[in-house]
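Lecture 7 notes. Example A: sequence first, then its structure tokens.
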Amino acid sequence: MASPFKIRMRTASLLRRIFSRRFLKFGTVGASGTIVNIGVLYLAQEFLFDTVQTTEIRLNLSLALAIFLATLNNFFWNRLWTWADRKQYHHLSLPAQFGQYSLACSLSIILQIVFTNLLAPHFYYQIANLIAIGVTSVLNFLLNDIWTFGRTKLLSASKQDTQD
């Protein structure tokens, strides 16, 4: 069992990571993704899939398209800006890294769909989606910071550098 000191140190490290400049960049990219998400969700819900009679199916089709395009937008901006300093640790091809990014985001995406569907009967669907995006953002950042954009690789490399 971890000592109270170790628990406090881990908590402080996690909070520093969450409230870092990188997280602010991630939030800015996320805001652009939110605009893409909400715009595509509206266009798909009101126009593209307006002939789908079942409300739930129409909402889920619209959500799938909106989330995919927002994820694509966020991947490219996060790669170019948020984690630009970690390019030397990206040994994967662009499609492979997008796959890794998408996999890391999948938990957040699933939770976003679940929360949007749970909240949509009580709120306007776009408000429900915004709430869901806000709730899942921190988890999404941590998964991508640690795995997709190489924090684990960065820490391993720095440990190896100090051992040499």
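Example B, a different protein, same format:
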Amino acid sequence: MAEIRSSGGAMMAVAASGMRAQQARMRIIAENLANANSTARTAGGDPYRRQVPVFEPSAVDGGDGVRMSRVQPDSSDFRTTYDPGHPAADPEGYVKLPNVDPLIEALDMKEAQRAYEANLNVIETARAMEMRTLDLLKK
């Protein structure tokens, strides 16, 4: 019985680490979306730069999980628009806009939600298996 419980506990720990990683990913995506239309505070300055979560393997109770190790800036180019009257416009009249594409962020958010739900299903299944095993052992 101890072997079954430790394997179920390991499954739950691995899935829980995945849920934490996806939750952190969703926070980063929400921050990106919140800043999608921001501009620089100074003329010619850089606006918000899209952030990207970086994941790495992480040892958890009896298995290999995942964790967000850091957040790094997306090095893709900023978008620009011509608006010479804008306070953040450079001397040529162009305003830099964040390198955030709301459609990409929405798709990333959906992917993160599905991964979170998949990990939740693993936990629920492992718990149901443990309960069924206990029921069988009681008989």
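Note on Example B: Confidence is low (pLDDT under 50) at residues 1-5. Residues 102-138 form the longest helix (37 residues).
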